[in-house]
Structures are given as structure tokens and as C-alpha cells.
Amino acid sequence: MKNNKHVVLIVEDEAALLDSYAEIIEDAGFVAMKAQDGYKGLDSLEANKGVIDMVLLDLMMPGLDGLDVLKQVRDDKAKYGDLPIIVLTNLSSERVIKEAFERGANGYLMKTELEPDQIVGEIEIALGLKK
Q: In the chain, what is the straight-line distance between the N-terminal and C-terminal CA atoms, in Å?
């Protein structure tokens, strides 16, 4: 059920990072939903269509990786909606960055260089709350 707070789904396989991102997001006044792999992320998106406002998506995950999640979400908007998706990763390869944007990513954040205010700022931009 939708309230007046924006809901951010975090898809991240590392539990400590997942919890850390959720805390940052909630401290900023958003609602954080968590999924620990790509399959659970897709399930959450489908089950909560119209509730989730955007996605923070890790690229390197076992099973279904972030690029595959991104492709499936963008290829089936009827099922998953058309949400902003910001990729979180340690991969700095230009090829991977290009592929993420080609598959429909709205943003790309490097985990190793990430500060909490950057995450919040990117979320606010993606949701149209600031420029």
C-alpha cells in the first residue's frame, strides 16, 4: 500500500551493504525495500508494482545479475512498470557502464567512491525531487 513516502527497492546480494543502503535511504525519509538477489528483485517489482518508485540495482550478483534484471524490467514494462533504475557497482569498465545505460539504467554509482549524500542525491534526482 502506497503512502506519501517514496519507496526505493534495493537489490544487493551483500547483506551488510544492503542494510547500509537501506539505513541511508530511510534516514533520508524514504521507505527502503530489500531484495538479496536478482530473482527476488524481479519478484518484489512484480508483487509491488505501483508501490515501488525506483530501484537501486547491484550488477554483480549470483544467479541473475543486475544487467539481466535491468533488461527484463525494461523489456516488460507492463509487468514491472517504468521505474528509474540506478546501478550500484564496483565495475568501472566503460563497456559495462555503456551496456548498463543501453539496457536502460538511469544512473550509475561506483560503490567504492560512494558517500551517503550521493546515494540520496541520485535518488532525489531520479524521482524528480531535485535537479
A: 28
